[in-house]
Task: structure prediction
Amino acid sequence: MSTLIISPGPLLGHTTVPADKSITHRSLLFGGIALGVSRVRNYLDSGDCRATLAAVRTLGIQVEEPQPGEWLIHGRGLGGLHEPETVIDCVNSGTTARLLTGLLAGQDFHSVLAGSEQLRKRPMGRVVEPLRMMGADIAGRDRGRLLPLSIRGRRLTGIDYQMPVASAQVKSSLLLAGFYSKGLVVVREPGPARDHTERMLLAMGAPITRRGPVITSEPPKQPLHPLDLTIPGDFSSAAFLLAAGVTVPDSAVSISNVGVNPTRRGLLDLLVEMGADISMDNWSESGGEPVGDLHVRHSELRSVTVGGTDIVTLIDELPVFAVIATQARGETVIKDAAELRVKETDRIATTVTELRKLGAQIEETPDGFIVQGPTRLRGARVDSHGDHRLAMALAVAGLLAEGATAIEGAECIPDSFPGFERTLARLGAELE
Ligand code: S3P
Result:
């Protein structure tokens, strides 16, 4: 187990962040079922994405790396995947497991999905249940609610499905299954879950429609066009640097080339509402996604209440948002975020437990947390619980806290942000 020790101090300077994780996963899966060679530049080489890379290779898709950071994905068309000879290991990646379940349910072969101890605890029923309504033949532990899953591929039927929780993984899984179904797949989402799947598949010529919260999919009449895209920086990785920049006195950080898709940038909008000195320029578009440079400096923040459909637009940022809230004046309330309990860890419980060790005034509620601020945090020994986003949120807290903070279990950080420590050090952080 590796321990990251971090001392207080500002972040100063200019940086980039690694590529978007959600888009990297999708480029492999969608590139694999396109007909022809997809070119993907600036992919994310993280633990989670390596699981998807290995999975598509096991399904018979050749992926080359002609130069560092670039993939050529030799797509074999919608019917071109091969029956895997071995179990597909999704490791820690929920996106890999859930999107693959939808893609594999309609194939004419059998496959088995497995995962790490952490992933084996995460709910799969949310994709298995609607897929079964479409006729999928899926067996697994706890009646198919948990990995490993055995998927006997078969032709599916359409569905009109109201998702109980806003989830991009569930939405994407069903839209992919729609390519192999006899009728229309209609997905109704209760909140604006990230829409990278819709953007990418539409760019590939897939028969996807979207009207507000209603998205449909059906079997394409033409092969999907291969992708040609440059993946922007991951907003969810930039979030840790934004959080440090805005809360640690004397900080000023610029991050270039960050994806600022409206379904992902909830934290940005919230920081503005709290009074943060934050700006965006150099707008462009990359791979059908809006991209910009972000600039942030230390600011006095006011507390806020966040809930409802805003939650899904900052779901992965909530652990680090709890750290931000410790520095805002007043009571910050996060509600309607029970989804946090089924992420890599129960992020309500783990965030509250670990931030309390640093002296935060934070209270757990069934669907979120309540934070009183501002508080001067004190360095302590804390635990990542094997959760990359919690580990990085604690590193931000370490930049704020008096004395040294030791984060145990820091080896999970490259699940989403390889080079995190190096990036912090370049911006002036003192770490060992
Ligand atoms: C993701 C969707 C979100 C997010 C996860 C990545 C994706 O999960 O939390 O980190 O790439 O589709 P849910 O779909 O469970 O909301």
